């Protein structure tokens, strides 16, 4: 009779995510994953099928949490554009902070794996597109309320904001000053006026 796999999935994903985030997919071995998750190799394979299966599950875990946090910030803001401004101000702080060198797990994955692995690329694209859609919806709401000019294209502007987020995340890995990241974010936010 097969043993039940007993563990708290969210905790395992969080631990595995931290390992992949710090070392990247290729440099994170199964031995590393066994150590950080405190699961045996058989349990990892039974629950996730493979190292890639565990990695994809961590991308889903990370992507869902990022999207939920963004959605919450946008929903709790007084206006749609204020929500976007708040997110970018926090991004400026994060990009110059202590943990900035970790960048974003999704951006790191694009740089490391997406060109080599279609399955990973599709998964990352799904999460990035979800976040872009949240921006587009906020921009459309801002346009409908008159907060954003009718001349602006919400879809193109959302894509532009996402591209700038990727750039800020990569810049964060270089150790920029808070003044530099804030100045960059000020320029990005000028696109909203």
Structure notes:
With 193 residues, this protein is mainly alpha-helical. Helices cover 75% and strands 0% of the residues. It is built from 9 helices and no strands. It has helices spanning 9-27, 30-37, 41-48, 51-75, 80-95, 105-114, 118-144, 154-172, 178-189. The longest helix has 27 residues, at 118-144. 28% of the residues are buried. The mean pLDDT is 92.
Oligomerization: single chain
Round the Cα radius of gyration to an integer and report it: 19 Å
Structural class, from secondary structure content? mainly alpha
Give me the number of helical elements: 9
The succession of helices and strands, N to C, reads HHHHHHHHH
Shape: elongated
Poorly predicted regions are none
* Share in helix: over 70%
Descriptive tags:
mainly alpha; single chain
Layout of helices and strands:
Layout: H1 9-27, H2 30-37, H3 41-48, H4 51-75, H5 80-95, H6 105-114, H7 118-144, H8 154-172, H9 178-189
Could you give a quick summary of the protein structure above?
This protein is mostly helical. The model has no long low-confidence stretch (mean pLDDT 92). α1 runs antiparallel to α2 and α1 (9-27) crosses α6 (105-114).
């Amino acid at each position: 009779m097969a043993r039940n796999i007993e563990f708290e999935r969210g905790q395992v994903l969080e631990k595995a995510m931290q390992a992949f985030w710090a070392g990247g997919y290729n440099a994170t071995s199964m031995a590393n994953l066994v150590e950080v998750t405190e699961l045996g190799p058989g349990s990892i394979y039974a629950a996730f099928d493979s190292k890639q299966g565990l990695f994809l599950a961590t991308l889903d875990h990370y992507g869902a949490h990022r999207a939920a946090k963004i959605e919450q910030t946008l929903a709790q803001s007084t206006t749609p554009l204020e929500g976007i401004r708040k997110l970018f101000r926090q991004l400026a702080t994060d990009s110059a902070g202590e943990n900035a060198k970790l960048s974003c797990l999704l951006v790191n994955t694009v740089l490391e794996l997406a060109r080599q692995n279609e399955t990973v690329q599709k998964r990352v694209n799904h999460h990035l597109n979800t976040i872009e859609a949240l921006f587009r919806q906020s921009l459309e709401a801002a346009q409908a309320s008159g907060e954003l000019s009718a001349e602006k294209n919400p879809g193109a502007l959302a894509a532009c904001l996402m591209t700038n987020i990727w750039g800020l995340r990569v810049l964060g890995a270089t150790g920029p000053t808070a003044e530099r990241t804030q100045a960059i974010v000020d320029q990005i936010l000028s696109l909203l006026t």
